[in-house]
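[Primary structure, fold]
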Amino acid sequence: MKKQTKDFKEWCIKNNIETDLNITYLTKIKYGGRDRLRELVRIRDKHTCTKCKIKWVEGDRRFDVHQKIKTKDCLTLNDTDDMFTICHFCNFNLKENLDAMKNAIRKDKKVKNLST
C-alpha cells in the first residue's frame, strides 16, 4: 500500500469518514494540493459552517476553509486539525479579515492623499 493511500485511510478513520473510495473519487479533484485538502476538510465538517452551523447547498459556491494558525504554505493531511469550514458571511466577519480590510482602506486613503 502506498504511503499516501495509507495516510488517507488513517485520516478517514480518525475523522469518522466511512469510505472505500480513494481520495480522488471522494473529493472529485484529480490532483493533490490545496484545493483537494480543503475539500477533505469540507467533507470532514459535513459541508457545514463551524461558526453558524449553516449547511452548504449543492450548486452554491463552496464554503471557505480557514486555517486557525497560518504557519506554512505547503499543507498535508496532518495539518487539517488546524483547519475548519466556514461560510462566506462568517469568514468575512472574522476579526482578522475585518482588520485586514481596515488596513487596506487606510493604505488606500494614504496613497490618495499623497497623490493629490
